[in-house]
């Protein structure tokens, strides 16, 4: 059977994750965590199915074994990927909230203080109100940070998946380099990138940001039917994932040959990024390399303002999430730690350079190793 229908990590790794969550729950005086964020469910139990839009969650008791609640159509995936045997299924003829209530009552009881992931997109307002109506005597405390904090630092196996994703992303970028030329559409280019990503092992096709012409000057452009013209600037970010552990990077592509000014700008941006990355190591405040990026861009008058974040954490990501919430921007108050993984980027005048990096004991490792230069 394909490994995607098996737990992605050894059982002991899941047990260690759950034990850490349970320790936090006991410290906070909580009897359980109701984990609704799909990444939390997969991270803690191993269960993965693309059907996570339906009501599903995991109950993580402060003591004992977790229980999974989900739609019965996911039974196959639960049996083959979840490392814990306790699961309760609801069918389309059931009231899923009645099933959820029964499980919570069995595991938590009444008049208990429980943590709940209120920031989870899966727990929308209607679902939260339905649970509160059926469980009026349950005291809920926002515990959205519990699993997120654990996920910040990756295991070596998690980083190994991100290396695989980085390799697939590089294959996607090479396909873009081989294909990009005047006369083809952005859509045709995206198709080649997506095919290369899938063939190279990515779980999802990407490609990420792909924009030319005027849209190349702005972040988050998506591909369209626009036909590439000679001398177009193409802003390209290629995203890939292995077991939904992500890596990505950006490169600018200039069709028809680059000018001397283009090469100067690219070289300047790469030097700025090198300086910022040289400051990254465990114990360093994120504001340090963030300020290096911003101060250099503004002091060299490459932009009149620069408001984008410069680092954000990457790991296990399930759509619609595209990044973990740990970000570097002015005023942030966190420090780099060994085995954190980040996407770090700068985008100026349509020229985007970025890397996926893992924090090491004495600095960082580039997981994305594609040549760093203006592609022309």
Note down, in words, how this protein is organized.
This protein is an alpha+beta fold. The chain is built from ten helices and 14 strands. The chain has helices at 11-27, 38-45, 75-81, 96-108, 125-134, 145-151, 156-179, 186-199, 260-278, 287-299; strands at residues 32-35, 57-61, 67-71, 87-90, 113-116, 139-142, 210-212, 233-242, 245-254, 311-313, 327-328, 341-348, 351-360, 363-366. The strands form three sheets. It has a six-stranded mixed beta sheet. A five-stranded antiparallel beta sheet has the order 11-10-12-13-14. Strand 8 and strand 9 form a beta hairpin. Helix 4 (96-108) crosses helix 5 and helix 7 packs antiparallel against helix 8. It starts with 10 loop residues before the first helix and ends in a 10-residue tail after the last strand.
């Amino acid at each position: 059977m394909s490994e995607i229908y098996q737990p992605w990590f050894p059982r002991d790794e899941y047990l260690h994750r759950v034990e850490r969550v349970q320790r936090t729950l006991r410290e906070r005086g909580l009897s359980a965590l109701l984990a609704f964020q799909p990444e939390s469910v997969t991270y803690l139990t191993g269960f993965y199915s693309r059907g996570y839009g339906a009501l599903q969650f995991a109950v993580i008791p402060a003591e004992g074994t977790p229980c999974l609640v989900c739609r019965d159509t996911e039974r196959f995936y639960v049996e083959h990927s979840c490392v814990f045997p306790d699961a309760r299924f609801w069918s389309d003829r059931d009231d899923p909230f009645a099933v959820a209530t029964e499980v919570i009552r069995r595991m938590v009881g009444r008049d208990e203080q429980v943590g709940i992931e209120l920031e989870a997109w899966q727990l929308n307002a209607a679902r939260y109100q339905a649970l509160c109506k059926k469980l009026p005597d349950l005291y809920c405390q926002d515990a959205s940070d519990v699993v997120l904090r654990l996920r910040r630092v990756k295991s070596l196996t998690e980083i190994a998946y991100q290396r695989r994703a980085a390799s697939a992303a590089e294959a996607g970028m090479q396909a873009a380099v081989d294909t990009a030329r005047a006369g083809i559409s952005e859509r045709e280019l995206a198709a080649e990138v997506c095919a290369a990503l899938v063939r190279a092992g990515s779980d999802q096709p990407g490609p990420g940001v792909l924009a030319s012409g005027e849209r190349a000057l702005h972040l988050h452009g998506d591909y369209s039917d626009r036909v590439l013209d000679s001398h177009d600037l193409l802003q390209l970010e290629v995203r890939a994932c292995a077991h939904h552990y992500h890596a990505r990077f950006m490169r600018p592509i200039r069709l028809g040959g680059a000018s001397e000014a283009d090469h100067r700008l690219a070289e300047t941006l790469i030097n700025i990024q090198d300086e910022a990355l040289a400051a990254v190591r465990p114990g360093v405040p994120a504001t340090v390399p963030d300020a290096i990026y911003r101060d250099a861009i503004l002091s060299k008058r490459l932009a009149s303002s620069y408001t984008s974040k410069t680092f954000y954490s990457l790991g296990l990501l399930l759509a619609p999430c595209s990044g973990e919430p740990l970000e570097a921007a002015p005023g942030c108050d966190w420090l780099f730690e060994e085995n954190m993984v980040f996407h770090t980027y700068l985008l100026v005048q349509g020229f985007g350079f970025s890397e996926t990096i893992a924090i090491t004991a004495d600095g960082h490792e580039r997981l994305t190793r594609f040549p760093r230069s203006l592609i022309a």
